[in-house]
Amino acid sequence: MSVPSVNHADPDVAQAISANPIGRYDAIRTLVVDDHDVVRDGVAVILERARRAKVVGFASNGEDAVRAAKYLEPEVIVMDLLLPILDGIEATRRIVRELPQTHVIMLSGCHAPEPVYSALRAGAQGYVLKSMARADLPNAVHAVIAGDKYVSPAITALFVNGVLASTFPTDPLDRLSTREREILRHIVAGSSSAAIALLLSLSRKTIDTYRSRMMVKLGVANRSALIRLALRHSMHVL
Q: Are 96 and 195 within one domain?
């Protein structure tokens, strides 16, 4: 998809947003947020072919998504769950707090219970699996604009069968894998990503990925909040 550049007065916003004036039909103004070009373009094609939405801008990370939302004031935001700089959960939380009229649909490749709950708790009104985007996204946009919530049917089946409710642990730290808990203990002890990587014979990037995954699972925005949550639930340092 060829997307013309935007010429806004604010150069920072202009850099964060790629405007897309495609489509003359009266449709729902939508912002698409994903850190992969191919996904952003694919979502735009799905929505515009369905004549449910007009994509008015793109953003590639959570921080730019918040700024773009404030600038464009879209009716709907299709938000990737895992984003650089600021993850989709925290970006959603900030956007719905400042723009309560904006509806966020989380787009994710994960149907595990933790991110679904985290997204809905953060204020998202929809949760769509990337594998089902072609079929589900147009319906999700229509639903959230009507004031309803929308979750991909594959996930809804888990709700109906009680799977999500029964597998969502009372202690949030129980959501973490053994390796994640091990890394979290080192983080709580004050170790840097580089130090943990050296100790566990892993790359720093792998440690950072584990930390980002834990933040999504636990619904926290940054390292400090991750440490506070761990201490609050009696995680002992090494």
A: no
